[in-house]
Amino acid sequence: GGGIYIFDNSDFIDRRPDPKLRLLSAMPGGGWHSVVPANIGGVPHLVGGSELGGCPGTWPRITNIADERKPFIAGEFRLAMNRAENCPPPGQAAGGSSGIVPDPGTATLHYNAVDNAADTRLGLFNFMWAGLRVADIRDPKLPAELAYFKPGDVCTGHVRYRPESGHIWLTCNASG
Predict the structure, then answer these.
(1) C-alpha closest to that of 157 among 143, 175, 170
(2) What is the pLDDT of residues 103-131, one digit of tens each?
(3) pLDDT at residue 6 tops 90
(4) 80 near 94, Cβ under 8 Å?
């Protein structure tokens, strides 16, 4: 599931001789792929997940980093397809890769974003074959799906929110 590591880099900022990074904390399971900053209700968070993986796949986690020494997962956004009890037996792709490569149809996170890092309301999550999912994450404990777009092919690219137009831009393998 990856993890988040928070380091003190003040030696470098202060241009001290023989600078060192000091580990402040680690949040196992906080994700490692496309982690983005989010300020939710004035509280700093990170939103991200792991990448790929056979069923149940991966999903976004919302990590509270208000206390950099004690981060915690405040919430996560999972689809019904991300629950082990809903997984079919591994197919050729997942079985042949020990579960790293997902089978077609798997709802696994690839890239994610938020609408505004300074005042976050929306999580934008590309779930490969489950398409783009837009969630209200203002309450990190209870993210709620607001909309989805499922073009029929795999969506694996970066997602961008354009505040000047309200547009959401994404790419998919055949329908970008």
Answers:
(1) 170
(2) 777 788 888 999 999 999 999 999 888 89
(3) yes
(4) no
pTM (2 d.p.): 0.89
Give pLDDT, residue 1: 53
Separation in Å, CA 134 to CA 44, 78, 94: 20, 12, 27
Residues 6 or more apart from 64 whose CB is under 8 A from it?
43, 44, 45, 71, 72, 73, 74, 140
**Average per-residue pLDDT in the chain?**
89
The Cα–Cα gap between 43 and 119 comes to 10
